[in-house]
Amino acid sequence: MTVTARDSIDDASASTTTEDPLVDLARRLLKEIGEDPDRDGLRDTPARFARWWREFIDYEPGSLGTLFESIGTSQLVVVSDIQVWSLCEHHLLPFNCSVTIAYRPAGQLLGLSKFARVAHQYAHRLQVQERLVDQIAREISTLSGTPDVAVIAKGEHLCMSMRGIKAAAQMTSTAYRGGFGTDPGLRAELFDLLRA
Fold first, then answer.
1. pTM for this model (two decimals)
2. Can 89 be counted among the known catalytic residues?
């Protein structure tokens, strides 16, 4: 058997532990902003940075498809104040949202924990709030089998409150599908429930 130089390189690389490239990125970032990544307080920061990014982006929501038989078709189900964090795709800064999801079941009820799982699934990526509400609405509609879904999110964006204008403000975005987009009475019922 002939051993080539390529085989030797592959064997050597297999025996060493590969460091996450995000660790090196964090070290370089610290150096670029004038910090010493080898000082006591920062020595483990690059590895923590890499672990956080991997944990955030590789989020696994768990089971999403638990359905139960609905009692009636005229029900309105509202799950409110689901707190999620996401990352602004324009500045890589966090934003947090309070998400409300409403739907009118079409024969089946979606398990309660699934609403938060869906919201977190779409928040755990580089995002904009307008797309976030649309993706949540689409997924809830697909999972529940109803076209009648509304999603409302109120968020504070650190890309506005920490940089630029440096003013805290709430942004509200909505996605109305099915009857919530066409039936003012259904939308009014939702708003009455939210005000109660």
1. 0.85
2. yes
* Paired sense of beta strands 77-88 and 126-127, if any: parallel
For the segment 92-133, what is each residue's pLDDT rounded down to a tens digit?
A: 999 999 999 999 998 889 999 999 999 999 999 999 999 999
| Active-site position among 124, 129, 135, 139 | 129
Annotated active-site residue 121? The verdict is no
Q: Active-site residue among 91, 108, 156, 189?
A: 91
Task: Select from 159, 8, 168, 185 the least CA-distant residue to 87.
Answer: 159
- Residue 119 phi/psi, 5-degree rounding, is -60, -45
Q: Give the residue carrying structure tokens 């024969």.
A: 107
Residue 157 catalytic? yes
Spot the catalytic one: 19, 55, 83, 89: 89
Is 91 among the catalytic positions?
yes
Asked if residues 23 and 49 have their Cβ atoms less than 8 Å apart, the reply is: yes
In degrees and rounded to multiples of 5, residue 70 shows phi and psi of: -80, 150
